Amino acid sequence: MDCSATELARLVPDLDPAATLYVADKDLVVVFSNDEWRRFAESNAGDALVGPRWNTGLLDNMSGRAKSRWASIYDLLLDKRLSHYEEDFICSSPQERRIFRLRITPVELPGKDGVWLVHHTVRIDDSAEEREDLRRRLRELETDVGLLEREYRARVMGRQTEVPGFAVAEHFQPLDDVGGDLIWSRQYEDGGADLVVADTTGHGYEAAVHAAKLVMMLDQLASADRTPQDLLATLNRGLIRNRPAHESAFATGIHFRFQRADSCIRCANFGHMGPLFSRSGQVDLELGVALGLVDTVPLWPETMIDLEDHGTRFLVFSDGVTEQFDASGGMFGAGRLLQSFRGSLDLDLHAALMRIVSDLAEFRGEAIVKDDSTLVALELVP
Question: What is the mean pLDDT of the chain?
Fold first, then answer.
């Protein structure tokens, strides 16, 4: 069934037809296409945003990996495993290079069969030149050791983590001068904040390349209006598209979204171990794929954690902590870490973290350290 702009506005009152590129039905056939936007995109070399015309299939003009990737995305949306999906595009004109964010939202229509997929767009503030400069610098990290060291020390090692409403203590120890673990945070004007704790494969310079890339992309792309799931999808594509073809490095970690004066934390786990909480112990967050593995299924489930239920102090850690061995080959493990964490709850946050670091060192003894280690402790301030 074709749909006019007037009919679209009536069926989906919260939607602006002028910002809607196209709408497809449950069979992925286009039932609405914004001809005014099409003319603008065609005249401004914005081929990626032109989109299909009425009564054509969304996948008709795709092939290979792109077709497989978008077919997976549409399946997830139609199955309601994704609430929405978004992706950024450069849409240029001779006068200006623009960036737009394509957002796809499944909408159930009263009295209609199935779900419609609404493709709409918003302008993004940062410029296409900034994005292209980021891509250039990401590629240069592979060969420019000096640039890698500068970016890693400034962006990974040269920061202090701050989260409004929380006390924070951290222990960050790369195995070599640089490493693959990272702690990244950002505060927003609305009082919210993001925190990402991640571990890229390997250690040393190779791992530092991927850690620096991840932090550079976080610095450029994170924003208060971008959900953890959306940000992780963008980071995943960036890691895959900005690495040599022969490499297969990936990153695990957790993205935390804090809201001002709220004990509930929004978490998106990309293949990492769950945090330890002062009341409930280790909590296994719903698992998403590690970043940099596949570019087909953009699924990173989000979990809401209420600290009033789980405990107002919690600990995030990398596997360099739990997979530390003693001289006889015994592993420290999550059980010993939880015991050390709970045994230090009567101390202030910084002292508690130092107690855990001390317990880890005592367990290790003279054994060789084989990986980076990261610990971040947070406590809700009354």
Answer: 87
Query: Is pLDDT above 70 for 14?
Result: no
Residue partners of 75: CB distance under 8 A and separation at least 6: none
pLDDT at 262: 85
Which of 78, 103, 124 is the last residue in one of the domains? 124
CA dist 265 and 256 (Å) reads: 7
CATH number at residue 116: 3.30.450.20
Which tokens go with 331? 């592993």
**In angstroms, what CA-CA distances link 218 with 148, 152, 223, 252, 272?**
16, 13, 9, 15, 18
Burial of 82 (0-12, 13-18, 19+ CB in 10 A): buried
Reading the block at residue 374, the tokens are 């990261």
Domain boundary among 89, 124, 159: 124
